[in-house]
């Protein structure tokens, strides 16, 4: 059962059912219809008359950007729940002082039984065990949260829903120096991750499936520089072969629909294609996908090839499930690191790593030896034009450069 708090219960935590955004039920006083910061008069641009409806209208802007939508939903959901349960206020009555308190709350969400997910497998958003937090947020995560909320509040002011944005009163930060990537794995840590995957047991069919999937996933994340959303959002049928514009040599590419619905071509190096074929053999599939094959890039471990000539393809794994696979490997690598008598600080770094760390690791490795234009286009940091022989020539040079310099070395 979800925890339902009565409007007449004592303390500030009353009047709301702890539930995901879109399912939150509040008493009228907390709906936001009479929020003290509501804009009165003028020419409102929203039909929304409650805080929850206004937040959902803001989120609708990001429906074509799954990653951005997920991040914005998480942060606005947390704030809306906190405001009504811990401050007994609607979002549209929050003040500058409330946001100062909320910032401290993010560093230590209490009471933990209400706000923090229990250890173990992550519960879905519709599971009674679901909670808004996995634990306290780091300082960088808190800054990101406040940036997202500032965007929300500013938009609600612009839309004529709120009279003002309390977050604009926050201390303005001095201009920071240029960004520097710190969330990546140095060579020894990356070696430890590869060694952990290679050491996975392969005595049973399930263990072989776990090993094969982990090895293929980390090959995609490192050699392709893919985001998790791109792993789950693209398929094996997106691999295709194209002739070199000058030499006529056939090269493999992976066409990726990425962040912001932008398409890019990722060089499918010889090493990546070998890993693809190895993974497909473990799945009892033919070595190479057919053009347009509707198979996902990553299969659930429990999937088994049917005897039918055309396999019954599984649905793509969810982002959270793929994230879980990645975190399990990093956690095992950290344990292996400590078991080998190595330092706690580096083990902690392995434990903290995520799929995006692999993307940064891939970018760092590429930038050492590959033209930065090729790195930009491979990782999707800029637009990719494929409408002329000249651009095809640039693509082929990028393929050769990436293939020669960027290896995983299983």
UniProtKB/TrEMBL annotation:
Keywords: Cell cycle, Cell division, Chromosome partition, Cytoplasm, DNA integration, DNA recombination, DNA-binding. GO terms for biological process: cell division; chromosome segregation; DNA integration; DNA recombination. GO terms for molecular function: DNA binding. It is found in: Cytoplasm. Residues 180-404 form the Tyr recombinase domain. Its main location: cytoplasm. The keyword S-adenosyl-L-methionine does not apply. Residues 49-157 form the Core-binding (CB) domain. One of its GO terms (cellular component) is cytoplasm. This is Integrase. It comes from Pelomonas aquatica.
